[in-house]
Amino acid sequence: QAPDSFPPLRNEAAVHILRGRMKGIQGHCNSCYMDAALFSLFSCTSVLDSMLFKPFPLCDRNVQSILRDEIVNPLRKTGFVRAGSVMHLREQLTDKGQCSSFTNAEKDPEEFLNLIMHQILGIEPLLKLQSGGQKEQDCYCYQIFMDKQEDLVVPDVQQLVEHSFLSSDLKLVEIPSCFIIQMPRFGKEYKMFSKIIPSLELDITDLLLDSPRECCVCGDVATLECS
């Protein structure tokens, strides 16, 4: 355990601490979905550090301390988290979520995020989405759904998000404080893409509802949008 707080890893420090054998979060009993989610959320960014410290109204402080002291701080300090620490968190999620399979079965990352953010920590939803002018939907992450695109062989995240929003007729109601994106699902038998290039920055200008944008023909403020 690492009870002291450590900042997220950046630049050369991230490469030095996270690269090599016995680095990252050790997998055990189908924990890959949770390991990948926790690594993505905390290793190199502080945008969700409120999950570790803030006393939310419904917050379970025991789960919060396990997440902070047994997983995030060791990951940032040494670059390694043992499987037992993640299993400790999974056992607590099993108790709190009335689901007996959190300790041994593979889950969808969205199910894990909804449980820990909504039911256990009581965090407000991070995203507000609107589809085709209908009622707003609140959620904690966005999972990319799309048909196979023959022209996208090795896509980047920017392309995937834009294609997914367009095909689902979705818009962001407001700029999110944190935009968690789940890549297209794949299994042992099928992968939609062999590789996905991370976009280090994401331009959401065209994804925002009622956002003023420039006309691509005349340069004035656009009044119409063509899909």
Automatic annotation (TrEMBL):
<dbReference type="InterPro" id="IPR038765">
    <property type="entry name" value="Papain-like_cys_pep_sf"/>
</dbReference>
<protein>
    <submittedName>
        <fullName>CYLD hydrolase</fullName>
    </submittedName>
</protein>
<keyword id="KW-0963">Cytoplasm</keyword>
<dbReference type="Pfam" id="PF00443">
    <property type="entry name" value="UCH"/>
</dbReference>
<dbReference type="InterPro" id="IPR018200">
    <property type="entry name" value="USP_CS"/>
</dbReference>
<keyword id="KW-0378">Hydrolase</keyword>
<dbReference type="InterPro" id="IPR001394">
    <property type="entry name" value="Peptidase_C19_UCH"/>
</dbReference>
<keyword id="KW-0493">Microtubule</keyword>
<feature type="domain" description="Peptidase C19 ubiquitin carboxyl-terminal hydrolase">
    <location>
        <begin position="24"/>
        <end position="204"/>
    </location>
</feature>
<dbReference type="GO" id="GO:0016579">
    <property type="term" value="P:protein deubiquitination"/>
</dbReference>
<dbReference type="GO" id="GO:0005819">
    <property type="term" value="C:spindle"/>
</dbReference>
<dbReference type="GO" id="GO:0004843">
    <property type="term" value="F:cysteine-type deubiquitinase activity"/>
</dbReference>
<dbReference type="GO" id="GO:0005874">
    <property type="term" value="C:microtubule"/>
</dbReference>
